[in-house]
Design a protein that fits this description.
This protein is of the alpha+beta class. Helices cover 25% and strands 35% of the residues. 29% of the residues are buried.
Length: 110
């Protein structure tokens, strides 16, 4: 997935056990690849909360279950209070059916 992201101008920037930050330095775009979901052969990409979700889920092979995805590892995304008392970064988790859908999603995120 990292090599495919590189073909779209995204480079790995920061990695944790659960997320991999991918940055397009030219366009200043950031998405996160959910590494935990990759272990079960699911390609999940967390996009910023200001993304046009309806446009992204219209991409063939991309789905969205609704709601926000919260993780302290989304270090560049804005924060909001979720279940606790502190704020936590959040975005939308888009699931890609295959590498082709992942490629189309990255094209749209640029």
């Amino acid at each position: 997935m990292v090599a495919l992201a590189g073909e779209h101008g995204f480079r790995p920037s920061h990695a944790t056990r659960s997320e991999l930050e991918l940055v397009d330095p030219v366009r200043r775009r950031i998405v996160y690849l959910n590494r935990r979901r990759l272990r079960v052969r699911t390609i999940a990409v967390i996009v910023p909360p200001w993304s046009e979700v309806d446009e992204l889920r219209a991409i063939h092979g991309v789905s969205f279950r609704g709601g926000f995805f919260h993780s302290s590892n989304l270090r560049t995304f804005p924060r909001r209070v979720n279940d606790g008392i502190g704020e936590i970064p959040y975005g939308y988790s888009m699931v890609c059916a295959d590498a082709g859908a992942f490629s189309r999603l990255l094209d749209r995120c640029r």
